[in-house]
Amino acid sequence: MNPAAILKMKNKPVMWLINVVIVLFILIIVYKLYQKFKRDIKGSIRNSQIEHDIKDIVNTQGSDPGAQVTSNVRTYNDADYKLMAESLFEAMDGLGTDENSIFTILSSLRTKADWYALVDAFGTRKTSSMWSDFEGTLTKWLSDELSDSEKTRVNQILSKFGIARI
Ligand SMILES: [Ca+2]
Predict the structure, then answer these.
(1) Considering the domain boundaries, does residue 75 fall inside one?
(2) How many domains does the chain divide into?
(3) Domain residue limits at 132
(4) How many angstroms separate the alpha carbon of residue 89 from the centre of ligand 1?
(5) Rounded to the nearest whole angstrom, what is the distance from the C-alpha of residue 107 to the centroid of ligand 1?
(6) Where are the strands (E) in the chain, listed by range?
(7) Average pLDDT estimate for 65-72
(8) Across-strand partners of 83?
(9) Which long-range contacts (CB under 8 A, 24 or more apart) does 27-34 make?
(10) Each residue of 70-82: pLDDT tens digit?
């Protein structure tokens, strides 16, 4: 056997291992992308349901815009804040941002207590994106997702409750 042939045989397991690693790597990427795709589809279905529910909440409970509500009173129930928080998260998590949903939800708040209840319901959330491990409160999420002019708009909405800027 000539030296070149021996070298070739010696290199074979190494090449084989490299190939296995490459194939595994590709499989992991494909699996990750598939998971993300599945999550996005589920998210958008849930999103439209939530949007519908939010409209219901706003329509049924927002029927008396002239009513003067004290700032320390929550004007929604816990399930509503949860739904709003979920909807805000869906609007911000992943690629892009659904600014209109954000403005709609924030505009539906009526008191300072509503805002704090929403912040509580949101808690601290971690992005589901595989490219980032961003984590934060509602305020942190909003200031991360929105442009300067959008932040100004949010601050205008929140300023009527005397809430510090996001
Ligand atoms: Ca986003």
Answers:
(1) yes
(2) 1
(3) 44-59+71-159
(4) 9
(5) 20
(6) 125-126, 135-136
(7) 62
(8) none
(9) 32/130
(10) 788 999 999 999 9
Question: Residue 21: inside a domain, yes or no?
Answer: no
Residues near ion ligand 1 (CB < 5 Å) are 92, 97
| Rounded average pLDDT over 36-45 | 75
48 CA → ligand 1 middle, Å: 17
Ligand 1 centroid to residue 9 C-alpha, Å:
51
The whole-angstrom separation of Cα 137 and Cα 141 is 6
Residue of higher predicted confidence among 99 and 71 = 99
Rounded to whole angstroms, how far apart are CA atoms 101 and 43? Answer: 14
Would you say residue 154 lies in a domain? yes
CA–CA gap between residue 78 and residue 122 (Å, rounded)? 11
What is the 33 CA–ligand 1 centroid distance (Å)? 17
Please give the radius of gyration of the chain, using alpha carbons only, rounded to the nearest integer: 25
The answer to whether the beta carbons of residues 106 and 96 sit under 8 Å apart is: no
Residue 66's pLDDT band (cuts 50, 70, 90): very low
Q: What is the CATH number of the domain that holds 147?
A: 1.10.220.10
> What type of residue sits at position 76?
Y
For residue 97, being part of any structural domain is answered with yes
The SS3 assignment for 8 reads: helix
